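User: Just a sanity check before I run the rest of the batch. Below are the structure tokens for the first item. I only need the designed sequence back.
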């Protein structure tokens, strides 16, 4: 792979809607190539030498923050980790002033996680560099959707010839996204991306955990997990986001688990053994049993590994050009 590429993406990655189908496939294909670097004894490319990437995290994160850091370092960028806790944010400094301060220090890209939906869009209006949305409120988490699609594609490439390459997209793949859709930026980004790549998406949730306007989304809806699991190739379990729930959305955790949790008994109701995804962190025993999470069909840790390759690809394509 050459060190310099012409950026074909927009300057920012704020939403899956910033990507055409072709651009999304380019990211997946680039991640495929870059995954080989991660398997090599020396996991470094000089592509982003001299570039500065800032991890600006106003909300907690394990996977996203660390994998963006690993991705940027594998491309030889300088990385600054900024956590709102312990910074001048506690003295009242605004997101805008924080961003301008980081820009003054020479940030070429800012990776933002924030509890406010739309925060990454606002930041993109204020900064000269690239902004990558690492999760904004209940709105979107585009790199999570990309790593999920990458993981699914690696295991289920159904129409390679028809799709113009080995597993170019996800045509014909049935994906059930299960659980707390209402609060899930992962679900929103995945619905946009998976449908753009040709997958059939079914949302499985109690009515109280589906957002207003979901009938306009390119998905089917099911309230019956036992029925839906029979049809799906992939079951993507979502974390119950108890910290975002201001009122009761289901009678009890036990009842939620019984109707919408994944356990081995429910898994056995599938016609085939579906692949199991979960973005993490997991509430073991609530939305997924420990046995399912740790089973041979679970790709949860592979998702984490693939997250580094996807984030390398996004950084590479956004910042890799000499004049980017
Ligand atoms: N999936 C995900 O965003 O995990 P973190 O909150 O640990 O980054």
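Assistant: Here's the designed sequence for the first item:
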């Amino acid at each position: 792979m050459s060190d310099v590429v012409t950026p074909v993406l927009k300057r920012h990655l704020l939403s899956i809607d910033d990507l055409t189908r072709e651009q999304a496939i380019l990211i997946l294909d680039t991640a495929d190539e870059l995954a080989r670097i991660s398997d090599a004894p020396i996991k470094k490319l000089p592509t982003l030498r001299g570039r500065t990437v800032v991890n600006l995290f106003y909300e907690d994160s394990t996977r996203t923050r660390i994998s963006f850091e690993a991705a940027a370092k594998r491309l030889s960028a300088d990385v600054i980790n900024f956590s709102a806790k312990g910074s001048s944010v506690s003295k009242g400094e605004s997101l805008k002033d924080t961003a301008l301060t980081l820009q003054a220090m020479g940030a070429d890209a800012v990776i933002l996680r924030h509890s406010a939906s739309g925060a990454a869009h606002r930041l993109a209006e204020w900064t000269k560099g690239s902004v990558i949305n690492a999760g904004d409120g209940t709105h979107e988490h585009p790199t999570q959707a990309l790593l999920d699609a990458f993981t699914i594609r690696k295991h289920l490439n159904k129409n390679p010839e028809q799709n113009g390459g080995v597993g170019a997209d996800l045509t014909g793949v049935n994906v059930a996204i299960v659980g707390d859709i209402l609060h899930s930026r992962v679900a929103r980004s995945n619905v946009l991306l998976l449908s753009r790549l040709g997958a059939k998406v079914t949302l499985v949730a109690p009515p109280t955990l589906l957002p207003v306007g979901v009938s306009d989304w390119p998905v089917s809806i099911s309230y019956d997990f036992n029925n839906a699991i029979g049809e799906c190739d992939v079951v993507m379990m979502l974390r119950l986001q108890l910290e975002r729930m201001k009122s009761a959305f289901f009678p009890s955790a036990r009842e939620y688990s019984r109707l919408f949790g994944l356990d081995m008994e429910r898994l056995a109701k599938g016609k085939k053994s579906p692949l199991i995804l979960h973005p993490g962190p997991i509430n073991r025993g609530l939305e997924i049993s420990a046995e399912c999470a740790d089973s041979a069909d679970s790709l949860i840790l592979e998702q984490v590994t693939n997250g580094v390759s996807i984030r390398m690809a996004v950084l590479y394509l956004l910042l890799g050009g000499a004049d980017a």
